[in-house]
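Design job #97: recover the sequence.
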C-alpha cells in the first residue's frame, strides 16, 4: 500500500491490536485524492477500516454502502451521544475535533424519543418554508453578491459567493431581516465561528452568535412571522427557548457549510469538465446533472463523525467495542464498488448517502431546501456572467485540509466586466 495516509506504531491507537495497521486520516495527499485512500483501505481492511484521527485517536471508518446504511439504521447499536466514547481520557480539551464531538444539548446529540421530539419540530419548521419564496430570495441575494464584483471582471467565488449566499439564505429563513446591521453582524460572526480566518476570534464570535439568536427567539416570542424560528416556537412540543436557540444554531451551521461546498464543487465541475463546458450558460439540465454528480463524487460532507457503539458488536468483519467511535464514510460509500461493479459511478439517481440515512439523517425537507439554494446560486451566476472561465489552470485548484468537508481553498474566475 502506498503511504497515502501515514502509519504509526507508537500511538494509543496503534497500541490496540484492533488498530494495528491503522491509517492516519489526513495529510496532504489525502486532501487531494481521498478516493485513492478509500480504495486502498478497502483493499486492505474491507468495508470497515481502523483509522487514527487527530492526535492518533483511534476510530473506525465505515467505507461500505451497505455498512453505512446498517450503522445509520441501527441507532440501538450505533448511537449519537458522544459521551459514551471510550477515548475521552486521551482527548485534550483543545482537541481540534471537539466542536464536532463535544456533547451539546442540541438535536445532534439527542437519542430516541427526545431526538424524535427535537427533530420533529425542525422537520415541521423546515416544511413550512415556501420554496418559491426561498428561490426568489436566493436570486436576490445572488444578484447583490454578483453586483459587488461584476464590474471588476474577476472574483474569488468561494468566499465572495459560495459561502456568503447560503449563510444569508439560512439566517433569512430563520427570520432575520433581509438587511440591516443585526443581520450583517450575525452573518459575520457565524462566518468567523464556522470558518475562522487569521486574526479572527472564533470563541468570542460563537458567544455573540448565541446572544444574537437568543435575541431573535425573544423577539419572535413577542411577534411571530413566517419563519423557522416562529414555527419552532409555536410547535406543540413546547421546546424551551434554550432548546430552540441550540437547534437554530445547528440548523444554520448544518445548512451553511455543506451547501456552500455543494455550490462551489458544482461550479468547479462546470468550469473544468468538458462534458459540461459546452452548455454551462443557460443549460438547466447540465446544472442539475452537475449538482447530482457532485453529491456522488465530491460530496460536501465526505465523512461524518459520527456514531458511538452502544455495546460490543461486529461490523464488516471487525470487532467494534462498546464506546468505539464510528465515522460515516459517506464519500467512500457513494463510490463503493459493491454498488458500482462496473466501476462507473452513475450520477442519475439520488440513492447516494450524501445526506446520510436513518433517524439522524439530514432532516427530510433540508435536502430540498439546499437544492433550491444551490441550484439558484449556480444558475443565477451562470446567467449573469455567461462567459465566466477559471482564472487559473484546473490543476492549481486545491482542496482544503479537511477530512470532514470537501471544499476548495479558492475558486478564482474571470469574465467580461458587467456594469450594473
Ligand atoms: C438548507 C440546508 C440544510 C439544512 C437546514 C440542514 C439541516 C440539518 C440538520 C438539522 C441536521 C441534524 C439532523 C439530526 O441529527 O437529527 C443535519 C444533518 C446532516 N446533514 Fe444537513 N442540512 C442542510 C444541508 C445539507 C447538505 C447540502 C448536505 C450534504 C450534501 C447535508 C448533509 C447532512 C449530513 C451528512 C448530516 C448528518 C446526518 C447523520 O448524523 O447521519 N445537509 N442537517
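Job complete. Output follows.
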Amino acid at each position: 500500500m502506498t503511504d497515502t495516509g501515514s502509519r504509526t506504531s507508537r500511538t494509543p491507537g496503534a497500541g490496540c491490536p484492533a488498530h494495528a495497521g491503522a491509517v492516519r486520516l489526513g495529510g496532504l495527499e489525502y486532501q487531494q485524492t481521498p478516493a485513492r485512500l478509500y480504495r486502498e483501505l478497502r483493499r486492505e481492511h474491507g468495508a470497515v477500516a481502523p483509522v487514527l484521527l487527530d492526535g492518533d485517536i483511534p476510530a473506525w471508518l465505515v467505507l461500505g454502502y451497505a455498512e453505512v446504511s446498517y450503522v445509520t439504521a441501527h441507532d440501538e447499536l450505533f448511537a449519537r451521544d458522544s459521551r459514551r466514547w471510550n477515548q475521552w481520557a486521551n482527548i485534550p480539551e483543545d482537541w481540534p475535533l471537539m466542536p464536532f464531538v463535544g456533547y451539546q444539548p442540541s438535536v445532534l446529540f439527542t437519542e430516541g424519543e427526545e431526538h424524535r421530539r427535537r427533530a420533529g419540530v425542525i422537520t415541521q419548521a423546515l416544511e413550512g418554508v415556501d420554496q418559491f419564496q426561498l428561490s426568489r430570495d436566493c436570486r436576490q441575494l445572488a444578484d447583490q453578491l454578483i453586483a459587488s464584483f461584476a464590474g471588476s471582471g474577476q472574483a474569488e467565488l468561494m468566499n465572495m459567493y459560495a459561502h456568503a449566499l447560503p449563510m444569508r439564505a439560512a439566517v433569512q429563513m430563520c427570520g432575520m431581516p433581509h438587511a440591516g446591521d443585526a443581520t450583517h453582524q450575525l452573518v459575520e460572526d457565524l462566518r468567523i465561528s464556522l470558518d475562522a480566518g487569521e486574526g479572527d476570534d472564533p470563541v468570542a464570535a460563537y458567544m455573540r452568535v448565541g446572544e444574537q439568536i437568543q435575541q431573535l427567539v425573544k423577539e419572535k416570542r413577542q411577534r411571530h412571522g413566517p419563519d423557522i424560528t416562529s414555527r419552532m416556537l409555536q410547535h406543540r412540543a413546547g421546546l424551551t427557548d434554550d432548546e430552540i436557540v441550540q437547534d437554530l444554531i445547528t440548523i444554520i451551521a448544518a445548512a451553511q457549510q455543506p451547501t456552500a461546498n455543494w455550490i462551489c464543487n458544482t461550479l468547479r465541475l462546470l468550469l473544468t469538465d468538458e462534458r459540461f463546458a459546452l452548455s454551462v450558460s443557460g443549460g438547466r439540465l447540465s446544472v442539475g446533472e452537475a449538482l447530482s454528480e457532485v453529491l456522488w463524487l465530491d460530496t460536501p460532507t465526505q465523512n461524518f463523525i459520527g456514531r458511538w457503539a452502544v455495546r460490543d458488536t461486529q461490523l464488516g468483519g471487525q470487532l467494534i467495542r462498546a464506546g468505539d467511535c464510528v465515522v460515516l464514510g459517506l464519500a467512500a460509500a457513494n463510490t463503493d464498488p459493491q454498488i458500482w461493479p462496473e466501476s462507473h459511478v452513475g450520477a442519475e439517481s439520488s440513492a447516494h448517502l450524501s445526506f446520510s440515512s436513518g433517524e439522524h439523517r439530514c432532516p427530510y425537507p433540508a435536502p430540498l431546501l439546499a437544492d433550491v439554494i444551490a441550484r439558484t446560486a449556480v444558475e443565477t451566476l451562470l446567467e449573469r456572467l455567461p462567459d465566466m472561465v477559471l482564472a487559473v489552470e484546473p490543476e492549481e485548484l486545491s482542496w482544503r485540509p479537511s477530512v470532514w468537508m470537501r471544499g476548495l481553498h479558492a475558486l478564482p474566475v474571470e469574465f467580461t466586466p458587467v456594469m450594473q
